TrEMBL record:
Primary localization class, coarse: plastid
Family note: Belongs to the bacterial ribosomal protein bL32 family.
Organism: Polytrichum commune
GO CC annotations, alphabetized: chloroplast; large ribosomal subunit
Stored InterPro entries: Ribosomal_bL32, Ribosomal_bL32_plant/cyanobact, Ribosomal_zn-bd
Location of the protein in the cell: Plastid, Chloroplast
Protein name per UniProt: Large ribosomal subunit protein bL32c
Keywords assigned: Chloroplast, Plastid, Ribonucleoprotein, Ribosomal protein
Biological processes, Gene Ontology terms: translation
Length: 59
């Protein structure tokens, strides 16, 4: 027969939510850093194709 599970405490929920938010913040910072390095042309570990049309407009 099925037995109901115990409730998760508020503190446990808050801890899990905080961990989830910290992971999202780290991912956001990493993505923003990569975008900045690409825009400044300093990226050495990330390869991308530049369109001739886009590069002509930016100059």
């Amino acid at each position: 027969m099925a037995v109901p599970k115990k409730r998760t405490s508020k503190s446990k929920k808050k801890i899990r939510e905080t961990i989830w938010k910290e992971k999202a913040i780290k991912a956001r910072i990493k993505a923003f850093s990569l975008a900045k390095s690409i825009l400044t042309g300093r990226s050495k570990s990330f390869y991308y194709i530049m369109n001739e049309e886009n590069s002509a407009q930016s100059q």
